[in-house]
Amino acid sequence: MANSARKKVKDPEGRMPLVEHLRELRNRLAKSVVAIVVVAVVAAFYYKDIIEVFKHPIQQAIGCQVSFSELSQKDATKTCGNITMSGLVGPFTLMVKVSLVSGLVLSSPVWLYQLWAFLAPGLHKTEKKYALGFVAAGVPLFAAGAYFAYWALPAAAKVLIDFTPSGVTNLLPLDELIDLVTRLVVVFGLSFELPLLLMMLNFGGILSGRRMLGWWRPMVMGVTVFAAVATPTVDPFSMFLLAGPIIVLYFIAVAIALVNDKRKQRANPDRDLDDDEAAPLDLTPQPIGDSEPLPALPEQSSTDGAHSTGRGYDDAT
Protein backbone atom coordinates (compact mmCIF):
# COMPACT_ATOMS: atom_id res chain seq x y z
CA MET A 1 0.00 0.00 0.00
CA ALA A 2 2.85 2.39 0.78
CA ASN A 3 4.44 1.91 -2.64
CA SER A 4 1.15 2.43 -4.44
CA ALA A 5 0.47 5.56 -2.42
CA ARG A 6 3.79 7.05 -3.47
CA LYS A 7 3.19 6.25 -7.16
CA LYS A 8 2.59 9.45 -9.08
CA VAL A 9 -0.33 9.81 -11.45
CA LYS A 10 0.92 10.38 -15.01
CA ASP A 11 -0.13 13.65 -16.59
CA PRO A 12 -2.18 12.87 -19.74
CA GLU A 13 -0.67 15.94 -21.47
CA GLY A 14 2.90 14.80 -20.76
CA ARG A 15 3.76 17.68 -18.42
CA MET A 16 6.49 16.93 -15.90
CA PRO A 17 9.34 18.73 -14.13
CA LEU A 18 12.65 19.27 -15.90
CA VAL A 19 14.33 16.56 -13.81
CA GLU A 20 11.70 14.05 -14.91
CA HIS A 21 12.23 15.03 -18.57
CA LEU A 22 15.97 14.49 -18.21
CA ARG A 23 15.43 11.16 -16.47
CA GLU A 24 13.10 9.98 -19.23
CA LEU A 25 15.58 11.13 -21.88
CA ARG A 26 18.35 9.18 -20.13
CA ASN A 27 16.24 6.02 -19.98
CA ARG A 28 15.25 6.20 -23.65
CA LEU A 29 18.83 6.89 -24.73
CA ALA A 30 19.98 3.88 -22.69
CA LYS A 31 17.41 1.64 -24.38
CA SER A 32 18.50 2.91 -27.80
CA VAL A 33 22.20 2.31 -27.06
CA VAL A 34 21.49 -1.19 -25.75
CA ALA A 35 19.55 -2.04 -28.91
CA ILE A 36 22.38 -0.74 -31.13
CA VAL A 37 25.02 -2.71 -29.20
CA VAL A 38 23.00 -5.96 -29.23
CA VAL A 39 22.39 -5.76 -32.98
CA ALA A 40 26.05 -4.82 -33.58
CA VAL A 41 27.23 -7.90 -31.64
CA VAL A 42 24.96 -10.13 -33.71
CA ALA A 43 26.13 -8.44 -36.93
CA ALA A 44 29.76 -9.09 -35.96
CA PHE A 45 29.20 -12.82 -36.49
CA TYR A 46 27.95 -12.18 -40.02
CA TYR A 47 30.16 -9.25 -41.00
CA LYS A 48 31.78 -11.18 -43.87
CA ASP A 49 28.37 -11.75 -45.43
CA ILE A 50 27.50 -8.08 -44.95
CA ILE A 51 30.75 -7.00 -46.64
CA GLU A 52 30.03 -9.37 -49.50
CA VAL A 53 26.68 -7.66 -50.08
CA PHE A 54 28.43 -4.29 -50.61
CA LYS A 55 31.50 -5.66 -52.38
CA HIS A 56 29.89 -8.03 -54.85
CA PRO A 57 28.24 -5.48 -57.23
CA ILE A 58 31.46 -3.46 -57.61
CA GLN A 59 33.62 -6.55 -57.96
CA GLN A 60 31.33 -7.82 -60.71
CA ALA A 61 31.49 -4.45 -62.47
CA ILE A 62 35.21 -3.63 -62.31
CA GLY A 63 36.93 -6.49 -60.49
CA CYS A 64 39.88 -8.30 -62.08
CA GLN A 65 39.13 -12.00 -62.38
CA VAL A 66 42.81 -12.98 -62.78
CA SER A 67 45.93 -12.88 -60.63
CA PHE A 68 48.68 -10.22 -60.71
CA SER A 69 50.94 -12.41 -62.83
CA GLU A 70 48.21 -12.89 -65.41
CA LEU A 71 47.44 -9.18 -65.53
CA SER A 72 50.75 -8.49 -67.31
CA GLN A 73 49.69 -10.76 -70.17
CA LYS A 74 46.26 -9.16 -70.60
CA ASP A 75 45.30 -6.44 -73.02
CA ALA A 76 46.68 -3.20 -71.61
CA THR A 77 43.68 -1.25 -72.85
CA LYS A 78 41.32 -3.13 -70.53
CA THR A 79 41.36 -1.67 -67.02
CA CYS A 80 40.10 -3.34 -63.86
CA GLY A 81 40.66 -3.20 -60.13
CA ASN A 82 41.81 -5.62 -57.45
CA ILE A 83 40.20 -5.33 -54.01
CA THR A 84 42.89 -5.50 -51.32
CA MET A 85 43.49 -4.95 -47.62
CA SER A 86 46.60 -3.64 -45.90
CA GLY A 87 47.86 -3.94 -42.36
CA LEU A 88 47.57 -6.62 -39.72
CA VAL A 89 44.74 -4.96 -37.77
CA GLY A 90 42.93 -3.79 -40.89
CA PRO A 91 40.46 -6.71 -40.99
CA PHE A 92 39.61 -6.31 -37.29
CA THR A 93 39.04 -2.55 -37.66
CA LEU A 94 36.82 -3.17 -40.67
CA MET A 95 34.82 -5.75 -38.73
CA VAL A 96 34.17 -3.30 -35.88
CA LYS A 97 33.17 -0.53 -38.27
CA VAL A 98 30.80 -2.70 -40.29
CA SER A 99 29.23 -4.13 -37.13
CA LEU A 100 28.57 -0.71 -35.60
CA VAL A 101 27.09 0.70 -38.80
CA SER A 102 24.91 -2.40 -39.19
CA GLY A 103 23.76 -2.07 -35.58
CA LEU A 104 22.86 1.58 -36.08
CA VAL A 105 20.88 0.89 -39.26
CA LEU A 106 19.17 -2.38 -38.33
CA SER A 107 18.14 -1.15 -34.87
CA SER A 108 16.62 2.04 -36.29
CA PRO A 109 13.01 0.92 -35.51
CA VAL A 110 13.91 0.74 -31.81
CA TRP A 111 15.63 4.11 -31.43
CA LEU A 112 13.15 5.83 -33.75
CA TYR A 113 10.35 4.57 -31.53
CA GLN A 114 12.18 5.82 -28.42
CA LEU A 115 12.57 9.23 -30.05
CA TRP A 116 8.89 9.27 -30.98
CA ALA A 117 7.82 8.19 -27.47
CA PHE A 118 9.86 11.04 -25.97
CA LEU A 119 8.39 13.71 -28.27
CA ALA A 120 4.80 12.47 -28.63
CA PRO A 121 3.41 13.67 -25.23
CA GLY A 122 4.16 17.28 -26.18
CA LEU A 123 2.23 17.10 -29.46
CA HIS A 124 -1.44 17.80 -30.09
CA LYS A 125 -3.68 15.18 -31.66
CA THR A 126 -3.43 16.72 -35.16
CA GLU A 127 0.34 17.11 -34.85
CA LYS A 128 0.66 13.45 -33.84
CA LYS A 129 -1.31 12.41 -36.91
CA TYR A 130 0.91 14.46 -39.22
CA ALA A 131 4.09 13.33 -37.47
CA LEU A 132 3.17 9.65 -37.79
CA GLY A 133 2.38 10.16 -41.47
CA PHE A 134 5.71 11.86 -42.14
CA VAL A 135 7.64 9.17 -40.27
CA ALA A 136 5.79 6.48 -42.21
CA ALA A 137 6.71 8.24 -45.47
CA GLY A 138 10.28 9.04 -44.42
CA VAL A 139 11.36 5.43 -43.90
CA PRO A 140 10.43 4.28 -47.46
CA LEU A 141 12.00 7.43 -48.93
CA PHE A 142 15.28 6.78 -47.12
CA ALA A 143 15.21 3.13 -48.18
CA ALA A 144 14.51 4.17 -51.79
CA GLY A 145 17.47 6.56 -51.77
CA ALA A 146 19.76 3.95 -50.25
CA TYR A 147 18.71 1.33 -52.79
CA PHE A 148 19.15 3.81 -55.64
CA ALA A 149 22.72 4.48 -54.51
CA TYR A 150 23.39 0.73 -54.23
CA TRP A 151 21.99 0.22 -57.74
CA ALA A 152 23.87 3.13 -59.33
CA LEU A 153 27.25 2.51 -57.70
CA PRO A 154 28.46 -0.22 -60.13
CA ALA A 155 27.72 2.03 -63.11
CA ALA A 156 29.59 4.90 -61.45
CA ALA A 157 32.49 2.54 -60.65
CA LYS A 158 32.79 1.60 -64.34
CA VAL A 159 33.02 5.26 -65.30
CA LEU A 160 35.67 5.94 -62.65
CA ILE A 161 37.82 2.90 -63.43
CA ASP A 162 38.09 3.96 -67.08
CA PHE A 163 40.24 6.91 -65.99
CA THR A 164 43.01 4.48 -64.99
CA PRO A 165 46.03 4.86 -67.33
CA SER A 166 46.81 2.02 -69.72
CA GLY A 167 49.00 -0.76 -68.34
CA VAL A 168 48.29 0.21 -64.71
CA THR A 169 46.42 -2.00 -62.23
CA ASN A 170 44.08 -0.23 -59.86
CA LEU A 171 44.24 -1.46 -56.25
CA LEU A 172 41.01 -0.88 -54.30
CA PRO A 173 41.43 -0.98 -50.49
CA LEU A 174 38.39 -2.75 -49.06
CA ASP A 175 37.99 -0.36 -46.12
CA GLU A 176 37.93 2.66 -48.43
CA LEU A 177 35.47 0.88 -50.69
CA ILE A 178 33.11 0.15 -47.79
CA ASP A 179 33.40 3.77 -46.62
CA LEU A 180 32.52 4.98 -50.13
CA VAL A 181 29.48 2.71 -50.36
CA THR A 182 28.29 3.67 -46.87
CA ARG A 183 28.61 7.40 -47.52
CA LEU A 184 26.80 7.13 -50.83
CA VAL A 185 23.96 5.16 -49.25
CA VAL A 186 23.58 7.66 -46.38
CA VAL A 187 23.83 10.74 -48.64
CA PHE A 188 21.32 9.39 -51.15
CA GLY A 189 18.96 8.28 -48.38
CA LEU A 190 19.00 11.64 -46.57
CA SER A 191 18.73 13.57 -49.83
CA PHE A 192 15.49 11.78 -50.65
CA GLU A 193 14.06 13.29 -47.44
CA LEU A 194 14.24 16.86 -48.82
CA PRO A 195 10.78 16.76 -50.49
CA LEU A 196 9.32 15.40 -47.26
CA LEU A 197 10.77 18.36 -45.36
CA LEU A 198 9.15 20.77 -47.83
CA MET A 199 5.81 19.01 -47.41
CA MET A 200 6.12 19.28 -43.63
CA LEU A 201 6.59 23.05 -43.95
CA ASN A 202 3.58 23.24 -46.27
CA PHE A 203 1.26 21.17 -44.07
CA GLY A 204 2.38 23.25 -41.10
CA GLY A 205 1.30 26.44 -42.86
CA ILE A 206 4.83 27.87 -43.05
CA LEU A 207 5.46 27.55 -46.79
CA SER A 208 2.88 27.72 -49.59
CA GLY A 209 2.95 25.63 -52.73
CA ARG A 210 2.94 28.73 -54.94
CA ARG A 211 6.08 30.03 -53.26
CA MET A 212 7.75 26.65 -53.60
CA LEU A 213 6.93 26.65 -57.31
CA GLY A 214 8.42 30.14 -57.66
CA TRP A 215 11.71 28.88 -56.24
CA TRP A 216 12.19 26.13 -58.84
CA ARG A 217 15.16 27.78 -60.64
CA PRO A 218 17.31 28.41 -57.53
CA MET A 219 16.17 25.07 -56.12
CA VAL A 220 17.41 23.17 -59.18
CA MET A 221 20.72 25.03 -59.02
CA GLY A 222 21.01 24.42 -55.27
CA VAL A 223 20.28 20.70 -55.62
CA THR A 224 22.93 20.41 -58.34
CA VAL A 225 25.54 22.18 -56.20
CA PHE A 226 24.58 20.06 -53.19
CA ALA A 227 24.95 16.87 -55.24
CA ALA A 228 28.40 17.99 -56.42
CA VAL A 229 29.54 18.66 -52.84
CA ALA A 230 27.80 15.75 -51.08
CA THR A 231 28.82 13.01 -53.52
CA PRO A 232 32.04 11.37 -52.26
CA THR A 233 33.22 10.76 -55.82
CA VAL A 234 34.36 13.54 -58.16
CA ASP A 235 32.78 12.32 -61.38
CA PRO A 236 29.77 14.17 -62.89
CA PHE A 237 27.97 10.87 -63.46
CA SER A 238 27.37 10.31 -59.72
CA MET A 239 26.43 13.95 -59.27
CA PHE A 240 23.64 13.76 -61.87
CA LEU A 241 22.52 10.40 -60.50
CA LEU A 242 21.92 12.14 -57.15
CA ALA A 243 20.55 15.45 -58.45
CA GLY A 244 18.07 13.98 -60.97
CA PRO A 245 15.82 12.03 -58.56
CA ILE A 246 15.86 14.86 -55.98
CA ILE A 247 14.66 17.37 -58.58
CA VAL A 248 11.88 15.01 -59.66
CA LEU A 249 10.82 14.49 -56.04
CA TYR A 250 10.91 18.26 -55.51
CA PHE A 251 8.35 18.87 -58.25
CA ILE A 252 6.20 16.03 -56.86
CA ALA A 253 6.29 17.76 -53.46
CA VAL A 254 5.31 21.07 -55.11
CA ALA A 255 2.32 19.39 -56.78
CA ILE A 256 1.17 17.87 -53.47
CA ALA A 257 1.61 21.25 -51.74
CA LEU A 258 -0.52 23.02 -54.38
CA VAL A 259 -3.30 20.44 -53.95
CA ASN A 260 -3.09 20.84 -50.16
CA ASP A 261 -3.32 24.65 -50.47
CA LYS A 262 -6.47 24.35 -52.59
CA ARG A 263 -7.97 22.01 -50.01
CA LYS A 264 -7.23 24.48 -47.22
CA GLN A 265 -8.59 27.35 -49.31
CA ARG A 266 -11.94 25.59 -49.74
CA ALA A 267 -12.09 24.88 -45.99
CA ASN A 268 -11.15 28.46 -45.00
CA PRO A 269 -11.71 31.20 -47.62
CA ASP A 270 -10.06 33.85 -45.37
CA ARG A 271 -6.83 31.88 -45.02
CA ASP A 272 -4.76 34.18 -47.26
CA LEU A 273 -5.70 37.39 -45.43
CA ASP A 274 -3.06 39.24 -43.42
CA ASP A 275 -3.32 39.42 -39.65
CA ASP A 276 -4.30 43.11 -39.80
CA GLU A 277 -6.67 42.74 -42.76
CA ALA A 278 -10.39 42.50 -42.08
CA ALA A 279 -12.38 39.75 -43.68
CA PRO A 280 -15.35 40.79 -45.88
CA LEU A 281 -18.61 40.81 -43.94
CA ASP A 282 -21.78 39.17 -45.18
CA LEU A 283 -24.52 41.77 -44.51
CA THR A 284 -27.34 39.81 -46.11
CA PRO A 285 -30.38 39.83 -43.75
CA GLN A 286 -31.11 36.48 -42.25
CA PRO A 287 -34.69 35.27 -41.72
CA ILE A 288 -35.96 35.44 -38.14
CA GLY A 289 -37.65 32.35 -36.83
CA ASP A 290 -40.86 32.14 -34.81
CA SER A 291 -40.65 33.73 -31.38
CA GLU A 292 -41.00 31.60 -28.32
CA PRO A 293 -43.51 32.61 -25.60
CA LEU A 294 -42.04 33.63 -22.25
CA PRO A 295 -42.94 31.46 -19.26
CA ALA A 296 -45.56 32.93 -16.89
CA LEU A 297 -44.35 34.24 -13.54
CA PRO A 298 -45.59 32.36 -10.46
CA GLU A 299 -48.35 34.20 -8.54
CA GLN A 300 -48.36 34.77 -4.78
CA SER A 301 -51.28 35.83 -2.56
CA SER A 302 -50.95 38.65 -0.01
CA THR A 303 -52.81 39.35 3.27
CA ASP A 304 -54.49 42.57 2.03
CA GLY A 305 -55.90 40.85 -1.05
CA ALA A 306 -53.64 42.71 -3.53
CA HIS A 307 -52.32 40.83 -6.50
CA SER A 308 -48.56 40.32 -6.11
CA THR A 309 -45.80 38.53 -7.91
CA GLY A 310 -43.45 35.91 -6.56
CA ARG A 311 -40.79 38.55 -5.97
CA GLY A 312 -42.35 39.77 -2.70
CA TYR A 313 -44.01 43.03 -3.92
CA ASP A 314 -47.21 43.80 -5.74
CA ASP A 315 -47.72 44.85 -9.35
CA ALA A 316 -48.32 48.46 -8.47
CA THR A 317 -44.86 48.72 -7.06
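the 2nd protein, sequnce then structure:
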Amino acid sequence: MSKVGSIFFCCSSSNKYNRLDAKLGRKMVEVKRNSAGHDNFKSLNGIILRFPQFKEGLQNIRGVFEQYDEDSNGSIDREELKKCLQQLQMHMTEEEVEDLFHSCDIDGSAGIQFNEFIVLLCLIYLLKDEHSLTKSKLGSPQLEATFDTIIQAFIFLDKNGDGKLNRKEMVKALNEASPYERSPARITKTRFKEMDWNNSGKVNFREFLFGFINWVGVDTDDDLSPT
Protein backbone atom coordinates (compact mmCIF):
# COMPACT_ATOMS: atom_id res chain seq x y z
CA MET A 1 0.00 0.00 0.00
CA SER A 2 1.29 3.49 -0.84
CA LYS A 3 1.81 6.15 1.81
CA VAL A 4 -1.21 8.00 0.50
CA GLY A 5 -3.23 4.80 0.76
CA SER A 6 -2.21 4.03 4.32
CA ILE A 7 -2.97 7.59 5.40
CA PHE A 8 -6.37 7.47 3.76
CA PHE A 9 -7.16 4.13 5.39
CA CYS A 10 -6.46 5.58 8.84
CA CYS A 11 -8.57 8.65 8.20
CA SER A 12 -11.47 6.99 6.43
CA SER A 13 -12.57 4.82 9.35
CA SER A 14 -14.55 7.73 10.85
CA ASN A 15 -17.00 7.86 7.90
CA LYS A 16 -16.60 11.63 7.81
CA TYR A 17 -16.38 11.51 4.02
CA ASN A 18 -19.71 9.77 3.49
CA ARG A 19 -21.79 12.83 2.64
CA LEU A 20 -19.48 14.12 -0.06
CA ASP A 21 -18.73 10.68 -1.50
CA ALA A 22 -22.46 9.90 -1.71
CA LYS A 23 -23.03 13.19 -3.54
CA LEU A 24 -20.14 12.45 -5.92
CA GLY A 25 -21.53 8.98 -6.56
CA ARG A 26 -24.91 10.40 -7.54
CA LYS A 27 -23.21 12.95 -9.77
CA MET A 28 -21.16 10.28 -11.57
CA VAL A 29 -24.32 8.22 -12.17
CA GLU A 30 -25.92 11.30 -13.70
CA VAL A 31 -22.89 12.08 -15.88
CA LYS A 32 -22.69 8.52 -17.16
CA ARG A 33 -26.38 8.48 -17.96
CA ASN A 34 -26.12 11.78 -19.84
CA SER A 35 -23.05 10.67 -21.80
CA ALA A 36 -24.42 7.29 -22.88
CA GLY A 37 -23.18 6.39 -26.36
CA HIS A 38 -20.41 9.00 -26.30
CA ASP A 39 -17.50 7.09 -24.75
CA ASN A 40 -14.08 8.73 -25.11
CA PHE A 41 -12.21 5.52 -24.32
CA LYS A 42 -12.33 1.97 -25.65
CA SER A 43 -9.66 0.37 -23.49
CA LEU A 44 -7.55 0.82 -20.37
CA ASN A 45 -4.50 1.35 -22.57
CA GLY A 46 -6.35 4.17 -24.28
CA ILE A 47 -6.36 5.91 -20.90
CA ILE A 48 -2.71 5.12 -20.20
CA LEU A 49 -1.63 6.51 -23.58
CA ARG A 50 -3.12 9.86 -22.55
CA PHE A 51 -0.99 10.10 -19.38
CA PRO A 52 1.48 12.65 -20.87
CA GLN A 53 -1.42 14.94 -21.76
CA PHE A 54 -2.99 14.46 -18.34
CA LYS A 55 0.31 15.30 -16.66
CA GLU A 56 0.77 18.46 -18.69
CA GLY A 57 -2.78 19.59 -17.98
CA LEU A 58 -2.59 18.89 -14.26
CA GLN A 59 0.79 20.57 -13.87
CA ASN A 60 -0.85 23.79 -15.06
CA ILE A 61 -2.79 23.79 -11.77
CA ARG A 62 0.44 24.79 -10.01
CA GLY A 63 -0.17 28.46 -10.81
CA VAL A 64 -3.75 28.28 -9.50
CA PHE A 65 -2.52 26.60 -6.31
CA GLU A 66 0.11 29.30 -5.72
CA GLN A 67 -2.50 31.99 -6.31
CA TYR A 68 -4.66 30.75 -3.43
CA ASP A 69 -1.74 29.76 -1.18
CA GLU A 70 -1.50 33.35 0.00
CA ASP A 71 1.13 32.77 2.69
CA SER A 72 3.22 30.56 0.35
CA ASN A 73 3.61 27.80 2.94
CA GLY A 74 2.90 24.99 0.48
CA SER A 75 -0.67 24.32 1.59
CA ILE A 76 -4.10 25.94 1.51
CA ASP A 77 -5.82 26.34 4.86
CA ARG A 78 -9.55 26.71 5.51
CA GLU A 79 -9.62 30.48 5.15
CA GLU A 80 -7.66 30.35 1.90
CA LEU A 81 -10.04 27.65 0.65
CA LYS A 82 -13.06 29.82 1.45
CA LYS A 83 -11.51 32.67 -0.57
CA CYS A 84 -10.86 30.23 -3.40
CA LEU A 85 -14.50 29.13 -3.40
CA GLN A 86 -15.68 32.73 -3.32
CA GLN A 87 -13.47 33.59 -6.27
CA LEU A 88 -14.90 30.63 -8.19
CA GLN A 89 -18.41 31.84 -7.26
CA MET A 90 -19.15 28.60 -5.42
CA HIS A 91 -21.91 29.17 -2.87
CA MET A 92 -21.48 26.41 -0.31
CA THR A 93 -22.60 25.93 3.27
CA GLU A 94 -20.07 25.70 6.11
CA GLU A 95 -20.82 21.98 6.33
CA GLU A 96 -20.14 21.49 2.62
CA VAL A 97 -16.85 23.42 2.85
CA GLU A 98 -15.79 21.27 5.80
CA ASP A 99 -16.71 18.09 3.92
CA LEU A 100 -14.68 19.22 0.94
CA PHE A 101 -11.70 20.24 3.07
CA HIS A 102 -11.61 17.02 5.12
CA SER A 103 -12.14 14.78 2.14
CA CYS A 104 -9.07 16.21 0.39
CA ASP A 105 -6.84 16.77 3.43
CA ILE A 106 -6.04 13.06 3.57
CA ASP A 107 -2.82 13.43 5.57
CA GLY A 108 -4.59 15.37 8.32
CA SER A 109 -2.18 18.29 8.09
CA ALA A 110 -5.01 20.89 8.32
CA GLY A 111 -3.90 22.16 4.92
CA ILE A 112 -4.50 21.20 1.29
CA GLN A 113 -1.22 20.36 -0.45
CA PHE A 114 -0.72 20.47 -4.21
CA ASN A 115 -1.81 16.93 -5.09
CA GLU A 116 -4.78 17.27 -2.73
CA PHE A 117 -5.65 20.58 -4.38
CA ILE A 118 -5.81 18.89 -7.79
CA VAL A 119 -8.42 16.50 -6.38
CA LEU A 120 -10.27 19.33 -4.66
CA LEU A 121 -10.41 21.43 -7.83
CA CYS A 122 -11.67 18.49 -9.88
CA LEU A 123 -14.39 17.79 -7.31
CA ILE A 124 -15.41 21.46 -7.40
CA TYR A 125 -15.57 21.28 -11.19
CA LEU A 126 -17.65 18.11 -11.09
CA LEU A 127 -20.14 19.66 -8.66
CA LYS A 128 -20.24 23.03 -10.43
CA ASP A 129 -23.84 22.70 -11.63
CA GLU A 130 -25.07 22.27 -8.09
CA HIS A 131 -23.35 25.44 -6.92
CA SER A 132 -23.72 27.78 -9.91
CA LEU A 133 -20.08 27.81 -10.99
CA THR A 134 -20.08 29.90 -14.14
CA LYS A 135 -18.74 28.46 -17.37
CA SER A 136 -14.93 28.56 -17.70
CA LYS A 137 -14.67 30.13 -14.22
CA LEU A 138 -11.71 27.88 -13.48
CA GLY A 139 -9.91 30.20 -15.84
CA SER A 140 -8.50 27.53 -18.12
CA PRO A 141 -10.39 25.71 -20.88
CA GLN A 142 -7.44 23.30 -21.08
CA LEU A 143 -7.78 22.44 -17.39
CA GLU A 144 -11.52 21.93 -17.73
CA ALA A 145 -10.90 19.68 -20.73
CA THR A 146 -8.40 17.68 -18.66
CA PHE A 147 -10.95 17.23 -15.87
CA ASP A 148 -13.62 16.26 -18.39
CA THR A 149 -11.33 13.57 -19.81
CA ILE A 150 -10.48 12.21 -16.34
CA ILE A 151 -14.20 12.04 -15.57
CA GLN A 152 -14.73 10.16 -18.83
CA ALA A 153 -11.96 7.71 -17.86
CA PHE A 154 -13.82 6.93 -14.63
CA ILE A 155 -17.11 6.56 -16.50
CA PHE A 156 -15.48 4.13 -18.93
CA LEU A 157 -14.33 1.94 -16.03
CA ASP A 158 -17.69 2.19 -14.22
CA LYS A 159 -19.37 -0.47 -16.35
CA ASN A 160 -22.57 -0.85 -14.31
CA GLY A 161 -23.03 2.89 -13.89
CA ASP A 162 -23.44 2.91 -10.11
CA GLY A 163 -20.90 5.69 -9.53
CA LYS A 164 -18.25 3.36 -8.08
CA LEU A 165 -15.63 1.00 -9.46
CA ASN A 166 -15.04 -2.60 -8.48
CA ARG A 167 -12.37 -5.05 -9.56
CA LYS A 168 -14.81 -7.04 -11.69
CA GLU A 169 -15.56 -3.90 -13.69
CA MET A 170 -11.85 -3.25 -14.14
CA VAL A 171 -11.37 -6.78 -15.47
CA LYS A 172 -14.38 -6.33 -17.75
CA ALA A 173 -12.87 -3.13 -19.10
CA LEU A 174 -9.69 -5.06 -19.81
CA ASN A 175 -11.50 -7.90 -21.56
CA GLU A 176 -13.39 -5.49 -23.79
CA ALA A 177 -10.15 -3.96 -25.04
CA SER A 178 -8.86 -4.50 -28.53
CA PRO A 179 -6.53 -7.56 -28.73
CA TYR A 180 -3.80 -5.15 -29.75
CA GLU A 181 -4.34 -2.90 -26.73
CA ARG A 182 -5.01 -5.43 -24.01
CA SER A 183 -3.00 -4.94 -20.80
CA PRO A 184 -1.79 -7.76 -18.52
CA ALA A 185 -4.40 -8.69 -15.90
CA ARG A 186 -1.86 -8.18 -13.12
CA ILE A 187 -1.58 -4.50 -14.07
CA THR A 188 -5.33 -4.04 -13.81
CA LYS A 189 -5.47 -5.73 -10.40
CA THR A 190 -2.52 -3.68 -9.16
CA ARG A 191 -4.12 -0.44 -10.31
CA PHE A 192 -7.36 -1.32 -8.57
CA LYS A 193 -5.55 -2.23 -5.34
CA GLU A 194 -3.79 1.14 -5.40
CA MET A 195 -7.17 2.87 -5.50
CA ASP A 196 -9.01 0.62 -3.01
CA TRP A 197 -7.15 1.95 0.02
CA ASN A 198 -9.54 0.55 2.65
CA ASN A 199 -9.95 -2.83 0.87
CA SER A 200 -13.71 -2.33 0.60
CA GLY A 201 -13.88 -3.74 -2.92
CA LYS A 202 -15.32 -0.43 -4.12
CA VAL A 203 -13.58 2.72 -5.37
CA ASN A 204 -15.38 6.06 -5.47
CA PHE A 205 -14.44 8.99 -7.70
CA ARG A 206 -12.41 10.76 -4.99
CA GLU A 207 -10.29 7.66 -4.35
CA PHE A 208 -9.90 7.21 -8.10
CA LEU A 209 -8.58 10.77 -8.44
CA PHE A 210 -5.87 10.30 -5.81
CA GLY A 211 -4.78 7.05 -7.43
CA PHE A 212 -4.93 8.56 -10.89
CA ILE A 213 -2.65 11.46 -9.93
CA ASN A 214 -0.08 8.96 -8.64
CA TRP A 215 -0.28 6.95 -11.86
CA VAL A 216 0.15 9.98 -14.08
CA GLY A 217 3.16 11.08 -12.04
CA VAL A 218 2.27 14.69 -11.31
CA ASP A 219 5.16 16.27 -9.41
CA THR A 220 4.26 17.24 -5.87
CA ASP A 221 6.05 18.91 -2.97
CA ASP A 222 5.03 16.25 -0.47
CA ASP A 223 5.93 12.64 0.11
CA LEU A 224 2.58 11.11 -0.76
CA SER A 225 4.03 9.02 -3.57
CA PRO A 226 3.89 5.21 -3.60
CA THR A 227 6.72 3.45 -1.80
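The chain has one domain: 3-213. The first helix runs from residue 3 to 12.
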